[in-house]
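User: Structure with S-adenosylmethionine, tokens only please.
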Amino acid sequence: MLHDRDFARIAEIAYREFGLHLQSSKKELVQSRLMRRLRAIRCPDFSLYCDMISGPDGAAERAELVSALTTNVTHFFREEHHFRLLEEVCLTPVLPALRAGRRLRIWSAGCSAGPEPYSMAMTVLNLLPEAPRLDVRILATDIDPAILTRARAAVYSDDEVRSIPEPLRRGHLEPAGPGQHRIAARTSGLVHFAALNLMADWPVRGPFDAIFCRNVAIYFDKPTQERLWQRLASLLSPGGLLCIGHSERLHGPAADLLSSAGITAYRRAGDILQRSERTKR
Ligand SMILES: C[S@@+](CC[C@H](N)C(=O)[O-])C[C@H]1O[C@@H](n2cnc3c(N)ncnc32)[C@H](O)[C@@H]1O
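Assistant:
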């Protein structure tokens, strides 16, 4: 049984460390999700669990906590219009420049099991088959180490790959056992995975031509979302694209830097051809 006092401790840690905003109406949900975790690690009660995640040795278990409290739901080409925009806004206008050595940096922030960054890689390779030999990189980050292990493995079931358009499936998937498919090496090679908590420091400097941060900020309260949008917007190159989740809204200071580019899509002012060259990752 999760007592109010323990719920308050968990909510405080989840907010401070990860930006997760757990209202008291979520107490039952939190209880049922964490009960499974307590059973798995044979922890007898929530009070001991709170001690465990509060202590200096609690970092690994705090990562498990965020994993238990958030959903990893994702799929290939989710909100396909964002991938069309990526093509039209960030790729097509700069194709000659990319072939001549211009950098291209894309970030999937909150990438879950990988379908989002791999869909980006397929979109890039579809227009630019020589991308693996060019200065093209997709950074994919998530807070959850377990989901990143899955993403790096790049193996998906029949069901999971169904949302990849048929012509792309032929070029980017290889058989990986019965009912399983692996993302082809030249596709997965464009994507670099790293653990990153969006609430902490980011070891990235930018600028990025496109950032997708979709269905992550739903867990954050409004001030936390505003800070996140502003930090992301400031990392976009001129003309760069920011795509957010279908139920999320852009507000706060970022709205002054960005203008609408479609449904839950925004662009930074400026010409994408005039980007600076200070990208680090
Ligand atoms: C619902 S998935 C979204 C996946 C993908 N962006 C999409 O839209 O299909 C949300 C992801 O955000 C991650 N996440 C939650 N809080 C985070 C934080 N503070 N920093 C980084 N990632 C976080 C979760 O681990 C989860 O994998």
